[in-house]
Design the sequence.
């Protein structure tokens, strides 16, 4: 009789994205990242945290294929990442920090959100009218998923608030039905109440769309609310990583403890248990 599988025997989810001993340095400069190994398991959201200049955004750029490691590897589904590969570009989509600069002010929302469908060749073959109708349906679906009405498609970015603009940016990422969202400080440009609503949206989308979300953030309350796993980066090196509840609730590294103690909402009296 086969014994029941205990939690310790449960196999880990395969990594969608992974870095192995990855390093990065600009030509003639000191290393920005050194020996970074992190894995993004399918269906488990990951936070990259650390002070400004720690290397978080550079690591995100490696995972997006926007930069290549000078040492080590970046893997997608277990194979070396090929940034121009259409399967990768469809599966992994970015959400940038500033919703005011990431949307083209000259384009209507429908054009902005449908851009990945055109650039990745995701519309079905057929007449121009049929392709236009398909794009319209996909845009409406993406806007609904982020809580915006269908008539938002005919408007311009300046007609929306900051939180609504970030929802449009998220809709643009979702329109090609990706597996992974890579978000660089996705709520830092928003006010506190709007920030909470966008975090709730991302958490809901991760569940309803079976998305894996990788978030760069200096806000540990966002990390605690959104991400199951956390990697802490100090001066280009990962000094601690694991389940968020463990990393924030019982940090093992002095740098992690300093980060937590610097945030009033996550002081010793209110740490995760």
Sequence:
């Amino acid at each position: 009789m086969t014994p029941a599988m205990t939690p310790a025997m449960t196999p880990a989810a395969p990594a969608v994205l992974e870095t192995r001993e990855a390093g990065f340095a600009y030509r003639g400069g000191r290393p920005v990242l050194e020996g970074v190994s992190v894995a993004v398991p399918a269906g488990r959201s990951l936070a990259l945290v650390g002070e400004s200049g720690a290397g978080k955004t550079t690591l995100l750029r490696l995972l997006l294929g926007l930069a290549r490691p000078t040492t080590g590897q970046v893997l997608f589904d277990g194979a070396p990442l090929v940034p121009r590969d259409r399967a990768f570009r469809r599966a992994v989509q970015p959400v940038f920090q500033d919703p005011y600069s990431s949307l083209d002010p000259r384009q209507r929302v429908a054009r902005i959100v449908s851009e990945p469908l055109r650039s990745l060749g995701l519309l079905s073959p057929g007449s121009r009218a049929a392709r236009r109708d398909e794009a319209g349906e996909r845009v409406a679906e993406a806007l609904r998923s982020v809580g915006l009405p269908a008539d938002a498609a005919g408007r311009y970015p300046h007609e929306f608030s900051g939180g609504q603009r970030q929802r449009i940016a998220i809709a643009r990422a979702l329109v090609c039905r990706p597996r992974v969202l890579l978000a660089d400080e996705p709520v830092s440009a928003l006010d506190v109440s709007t920030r909470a609503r966008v975090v709730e949206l991302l958490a809901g989308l991760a569940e309803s769309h079976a998305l894996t979300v990788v978030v760069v953030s200096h806000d540990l309350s966002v990390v605690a609310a959104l991400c199951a796993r956390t990697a802490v980066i100090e001066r280009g090196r990962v000094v601690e990583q694991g389940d968020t509840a463990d990393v924030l609730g019982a940090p093992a590294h002095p740098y992690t403890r300093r980060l937590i103690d610097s945030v009033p909402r996550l002081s010793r009296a209110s740490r995760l248990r």
